[in-house]
Amino acid sequence: MAKNKLTRFREINSFPNVIQPHDKYPVPDYFLKGKWAGGHFGNSFPVILELGCGKGEYTLELARNNPQKNFIGIDIKGERLWRGAKTAMEEGLPNVAFLRIQAERINHFFAPGEVSGIWLTFPDPQPRKPRQRKRLTSPAFLERYGKILTRKSPIHLKTDNRDLFEYTLQVIRQNKHRLLVHTYNLYGEESQIYEPLVKEIQTYYEKIYLAQDLPIHYLKFVLNPEMI
Ligand SMILES: C[S@@+](CC[C@H](N)C(=O)[O-])C[C@H]1O[C@@H](n2cnc3c(N)ncnc32)[C@H](O)[C@@H]1O
Fold first, then answer.
1. Which residues are catalytic?
2. What does the radius of gyration of the chain's CA atoms come to, in whole angstroms?
3. Ligand 1 in contact with 52 (CB < 6 A)?
4. Probe ligand 1: pick from 49, 51, 57, 75, max atoms within 8 Å of CB?
5. Is a pLDDT exceeding 80 seen at residue 168?
């Protein structure tokens, strides 16, 4: 393992804003489930998640702009989380945490109604059919989100992958979720998207795709209330 990587792995273990549960399947559920705001952040603010956050650009910038909300970036890769967590500590951002888990496990970590929004920023597209359930916008994942979101909480998706985008639009339509806005080209002239911070924050992967002149797709929806 490269020396830099080793140092980061050692360092991240001592970061107070990174939670890395070691047990694979917490039974009973993780002790902060239902208590993140008071138990971890020491406030009563709403909690917003970024899934597959990588280095956490959205988590950080949303937190800087919304001091009255808590933001938790979730990813499985510790080295990427190290970057976001280090920045949050350097800036003294009290409303940021990073959770190193598989997104599949979120229902062990968050209680019904505990989460007020979810950002999916350039998730892996999982193009092969047998892996459809692994897509972060598959019905299986939306069911997990329905168990933790408050009613009318938005789910945002940003992606360069047209197949994943169209797949998501189809899942929304077929399951009667409510699509609020969508665009195939967020930065195109015809884009009518005025969501706060959707254009202003660009993630690590987003910058790579933009440098290749790829259009960025964006949508926002709320779950069918029957699922919540
Ligand atoms: C293409 S990268 C995007 C990272 C970041 N959001 C960005 O836009 O720069 C996808 C990220 O999702 C994470 N990821 C993939 N599947 C995951 C899962 N099931 N649970 C948690 N993280 C996952 C990967 O580790 C990776 O950091």
1. 124
2. 17
3. yes
4. 75
5. yes
Cα 80 to ligand 1 centre (Å) = 9
* Fold held by 102-228: Rossmann fold (3.40.50)
pLDDT grade for 211, boundaries at 50, 70 and 90: very high
Q: Does 205 sit in the ligand 1 pocket, CB within 6 Å?
A: yes
For ligand 1, say whether the CB of 80 is within 6 Å of any of its atoms: yes
Atom 15 of ligand 1 has which residue's CA nearest to it?
52
pLDDT in tens, 109-155: 999 999 999 999 999 999 999 999 999 999 999 999 999 999 999 99
CB of 136 shorter than 6 A to ligand 1: no
Give the number of the atom of ligand 1 that is nearest the alpha carbon of residue 136: 19
Atom of ligand 1 nearest to the CA of 158: 8
* Single pTM value for the model: 0.97
Domain residue ranges of the chain, discontinuous segments joined by +: 102-228
